[in-house]
Amino acid sequence: MTTAGTKGRARRSGPARTSQAVALPGLLWVPAAVAFALIALPVLGLALRADWPRLPALLFSGPALAALRLSLVTAAISTALCVVLGGPLAVVLARGRLPGMRLLRSIVLLPLVLPPVVGGLALLFLLGRRGLLGARLDLWFGITVPFSTAAVVLAQTFVALPFLVVSVEGALRTAGQRYEAVAATLGAAPGYAFFRVTVPLVLPGLLSGAVLGFARCLGEFGATIAFAGSLEGTTRTLPLLVYLERETDVDAAVALSLLLVVVAVVVIAVARPRSGEGLG
Amino acid sequence: MTAGVDARVLVRRPSFELDVRLRVEPGEVLAVLGPNGAGKSTLLSVLAGLLRPTEPDSYVRLGDRTVTAADVHVPPHRRGVGLLAQQALLFPHLSALANVAFGPRSQGRPRRVAEATARELLAAVDAAELADRRPAQLSGGQQQRVALARALAAGPGLLLLDEPLAALDVDAAPAMRSLLRRMIRGSGQTAVLVTHSALDAVVLSDRVVVLTDGRIVEQGPTREVVAHPRSPFTARIAGLDLVPGTARPGGLRTADGQVVAGQGAALTEGEPAVAVFPPSAVAVYAEPPKGSPRNVLAVRLAAVEPHGDLVRLRAAARPGGPSWVDGLAADVTPAAVADLAIEPGADLWFVVKATEVGVHAATTGVPAARDRPSAPIVSLSRSPTPP
Hints:
Chain A is mainly α. Chain A has a single domain, classed as MetI-like fold (Orthogonal Bundle). Helices cover about 80% and strands about 0% of the residues of chain A. Chain A is built from 14 helices and no strands. In chain A, helix 1 packs across helix 2, helix 7 packs across helix 9 and helix 9 (about 150-175) runs parallel beside helix 14. Chain A starts with a helix and ends with a helix. Mean pLDDT of chain A is about 85; it is low at about 1-20 and about 275-280. By secondary structure, chain B is of the alpha+beta class. Chain B has two domains: about 5-235, Rossmann fold (3-Layer(aba) Sandwich); about 240-360, CATH 2.40.50.100. Chain B has helices at about 40-50, 95-105, 110-125, 140-155, 175-185, 200-205, 220-225, 230-235, 335-340; strands at about 5-15, 15-25, 30-35, 60, 65-70, 70-75, 80-85, 160, 190-195, 205-210, 215-220, 240-250, 250-255, 260, 265, 270-275, 285, 295-305, 310-315, 330, 345-350, 360. In chain B, the strands form four sheets. Chain B has a six-stranded mixed sheet, with helices on both faces. In chain B, about 45% of the residues are buried. Mean pLDDT of chain B is about 85; it is low at about 365-385. Classes of the chains: A mainly alpha, B alpha+beta. At the A-B interface, helix 10 and helix 11 of A face strand 7, helix 2 and helix 4 of B.
């Protein structure tokens, strides 16, 4: 576990502090400091580079507001989709008895390790106008998915789903099925027990998974640009706008980046206490 | 509501086989004693419906319903079989009241009715004031009391008790034991109690089966099995000395009027009671000890048996003396036996301190389910029932 976790425990109970006095060889401090600097210094650099007096004007410009609004709306919808679809998937992975469950789990984790651009391309070849499914959607219903806001949502859901699934599955495994067994002996049918016992028990894991997923959606870039393109007001989310402005107006790019940093910090502050336990 | 049980449970696994046939009369409490790995938990899981027996010959009947058979498996939530385990397992996100109301609620009772039932039961287990607390704010003993109320609120036909006192600390266990006795015996609740403790069996159950390696090695009325164990396992964990009588302040009075001093929970004077002490607490004298404040029982030595590193002396009644001393045991060192220079037939005095004697309310049982004398400790005519 992280040192933050150890410290948290030490603060709560006296005995843990004495055991900590034995730990930490001095050798660890140097690489640890370098690692921390690697994360913290670039953010500091960003803050120093920012044109603070012009910041409000840059952030409240038309394109910036449109991108922010699009980012928040699509990330919220994607997160909701993750909960509605990923929650049940986590339950099946944790409790279901299917052959090839291990393979299934590896596939679910794919978006975590896959370059997002590859994910975007894959989505395009499935749902593009000449794609496996896209061609039929176009032919039968006249629906075109790519380069629409729906495509943004799909791309974000694709990359964020594993975060929610892993978090909820972990919570389910930690909770075990003892409480469900007790509920059954009290006369609760499986569905009743699921909503009254299982869901409340894994709620912390579900929330932290959702927050992490939301953060991942907000930051999504690769899959979105490959599958949804960069059309202002329709598919140009904040990260896409940052990348675009980087070429023409560096100050605007930095201001928008800072906005994303603030959002990320807020998300971490909200999700942090539980995420340590949930993702273990 | 309360139902009898008739079951044959056969579970075969590569390293383990359980083959048990049992009957529990309506309103009866059956204790299942046995070492770890004997199959007690497997047996309870099959009764609760959480586990399906592997062999088609198995069946479980609750009252007149068949809930387990070759082609029948009624799921746990439709069986009406309650479970109180070692861990209270209260739902951590619900208050004590909502925990107790969970059973009635899940059976479709309206919230108001369910909560009224829950409040009644919380009051019955002396936990009315804990209604609004979360499980994390309760002590182990309080949690177990709420868990008992929760199990009973669902109105189970059969209640399974899986070592309900094992996880409690020594201060909380006696109170929980008498609460279980009051709640379960008081209402005529049919129950199966799995336990390691002969004392729990004596206080709570009518009958005992002893399970070893998946088979019943011994069974009979609780007091008889505990006082006269036949299998080595029962002898090791049980083998308690029991003296029946009626409660009086500071102990009990036997049928012939002798007073046995001991420590007891609050008992009503005149209520049937049993004094319990371990054979290791008995000192043996060849001459009557004089001016002693302790319990002195005049006996005749019936048998001398090796018992681990010790020697177990078995008592019989003296001619004309009280018959209840028959079968009492005393564990002494071989050196003490040599000093006493005794042999069977000798008159001895068994002496036990009042602090070593526990006085408990006796299981008088359910009249309908009873076909044996109410003070059976001297009866040796147990009918051996095939497992």
